[in-house]
Amino acid sequence: MGEALRNAIKDGIGFALLLLFVFLFLFIEQLDFQDKLVISNDWLNVNTIFLSILLEALPFILIGVIVSSLIQTFVSEDLIQKLTPKNSIVAIVPVAILAAIFPVCECAIIPIVRRLIKKGMPLHLGTIFLVGAPILNPIVFASTYYAFQSNVMMAYGRMGLAFILSIVIGLVVFIIFKKSNQLKWTTGELLGTIRGDTKNGVNRFKATFYHASDEFFEVGKYLIIGAFIASMFQTFLDRNILLNLGSNETTAPLVMMGFAYVLSLCSEADAFVAASFGNTFSHGSILAFLVYGPIVDFKNTIMLFAFFKPKFVIGFLSIVTLVVYVAVLIYQNMFL
């Protein structure tokens, strides 16, 4: 009874917020808040950036939860086990290649990877998808190639470095975490009472919609929190400090990695932002921006903490940061 009451309250609040949104959308101009409410330009900028991040990410989140729900409904644990090579090390390279067929951003891939791991995929192979899928796909390559038409090697360098890093990071995760369970599970998942689980042919599509809607709202709330905090950073962080630090070739990659983390751009669009720094930062530091941001940023860190154990998230962030930084330094010395 208590659970039913809580669900009813949640549904009521959600419906009330929906009605409020519709009311404001239709009648905001008639309310005439202009003379009564003064909003600073900084907060207007926060609002603009916040909405831009949401509008940019939501379509890819929707793709991610639909794919995740299809996996939940139509892909069995036995199939995942059959498709995954028995040797954990041998499986790394094929999975890195397979990651290239998922044309989704860093937000959308998280629910997909979580579902694959719940279905039986080893943790380190799921990590390869987290690293590779947001970068190793045709959409990202095309946007990077177009953004850097004067230096198309940036697009090829991004793809090549991302492929190598996905393998290296997957191997490091395997060494540190082995095959331990690092997911957070809800009570319903542990008891096997998730809504809509069915083997009936017709009801499978109904179950897919149930899972997609549940997961969309579960992922969406963390996206909203992360997008808001990221918009705050973008507005109130003094970028001149970053530009001063970026003049050093050793610190510049770290600065651009931090910048990518804070900006929380979608991997399909970040190349155009990176290209705008071409006259300020070195090619190596811009490459660090292009590789690091799609793997981890502020908004998907919030989502990672929501779905994985803190030990794994902290370890994953540390591994990615160290490996990307060292790889970029090596790249600078060898090719630039």
Automatic annotation (TrEMBL):
Entry keywords, A to Z: Cell membrane, Membrane, Transmembrane, Transmembrane helix
Pfam families: ArsP_1 (PF03773)
Main location: membrane
GO cellular component: plasma membrane
Compartments it resides in: Cell membrane
Keyword Transmembrane helix annotated: yes
Recorded topology in the membrane: Multi-pass membrane protein
UniProt similarity note: Belongs to the UPF0718 family.
This protein's name: Permease
